[in-house]
Amino acid sequence: MRIVLFILGLLLAVFLVVAGLVITQDFQIYPEVTRARIARYRGIRVEAPRDITRLSVLTVDKETLDVWYLKAKKQFPPVDMPISQRVFLGRVDSDESVGPTVGTRRRFRRDELPRVAIIFRGTDLPISAYLPMQRWLEELGISSYVVDYRGFGESSGWPTEEGFNIDADAVWSEVIQREKVKPKQVVVIGHAIGASVAAQISSDYQPGALLLVSAFTSLKDIISIRPVIGSFVSLLHSTFEVEDYVGRLFNTCLIVAHGEGDKVVLDSNARKLAKAYRGDNKVYLVTAKRANHNNTFEATKGKLTEALMRCYADGL
Question: Model's pTM, two decimal places?
């Protein structure tokens, strides 16, 4: 009888653990939401720097998104950039074109060069954590928008994978209309889980370049290799595919950046994403030996500048 009770108790414990994981998976996937809700309840607002403009973007399902916008004061490529980084695009001949690139006779029209970037952030850091990335883009002469998804920061609603993609579509439309740019003049950036959102919107609109930082192939791939919880991966209600969307790119330059010290998402994911590309443009894999999940951008910033320059020198 005791053995039967023990087995029943063990099964009940397993059931409760699994049920707890299923019920709370939103809080595990979107940890920043809890902090945002507490801050909102306490009336605490994340203040943006003076040069940041806060925009409200309305989605088709009537959610309001908080977006941080930083306008670049110069054009890409900036004339004060070191010549070692500018050589890929050559010298600026006129307002309409950029000089021939190294190793090719092609000339680049000004309307083929990047003017704006959309950043889809991870879910475990506040929107302010992406200011260094916006400053980097500003130095390159690229204006930038960082999206606070539904449920995050001061955005309304509750986060879901489908909702994130609706948010991305709303922000894309807003940027295209506001900036009056072509898709080829847009750089889309995704960090961590934001890589899925970035890859999805890129597969739809084919921007000039897609930069994935600390990205996984899919959420299910990451969860499946974890002890214990990996056994219940089929219970996930979100997949956040990245590899599949990368495979749908056909004329977008792909840059994949990853830290070899990343213990959250192993760097093998980056190599798989690079191999998944089937398009006719270029792929650049950028790594840093001691970088982790959240500092890969800072550790690879110089290499990312070079890769982005090469993207636009290689025929976009």
Answer: 0.83
The residues that bridge with 9 in the sheet, in sequence order, are none
Strand partners, 211: 189, 255
Q: What is the mean pLDDT of each run of 10 residues along the chain (316 residues)?
A: 68 55 59 72 79 96 97 78 47 30 45 90 90 96 96 91 96 97 96 96 96 90 60 65 95 94 88 92 90 89 90 62
Token reading at 19: 């049920």
CATH of the domain at 39: 3.40.50.1820
Give 60-101 as a DSSP string.
TTS-EEEEEEE--SSPSSPTTS-HHHHTTT--B-SSSEEPPP
Q: Could you give phi then psi for residue 74, rounded to 5 degrees?
A: -145, 175
| Widest pairwise Cα distance in the chain | 88
Six-digit token pair at 103? Answer: 């190793």
Domain residues for 207?
A: 2-313
Can you list the pairs that 239-242 forms with residues at least 24 positions away whose Cβ atoms lie under 8 Å?
Answer: 239/161, 240/161, 240/193, 240/196, 240/216, 241/196, 241/199, 241/200, 241/217, 242/195, 242/196, 242/199, 242/212, 242/215, 242/216, 242/217, 242/218, 242/273
CB proximity list for 216: less than 8 A, separation 6 or greater = 192, 195, 222, 240, 242, 265, 269
Q: At what angle do helices 296-313 and 131-140 cross, to 10 degrees?
A: 30
For residue 268, the SS3 value is helix
Interhelix angle 194-205/161-179, nearest 10 degrees: 50
Domain count, the chain: 1
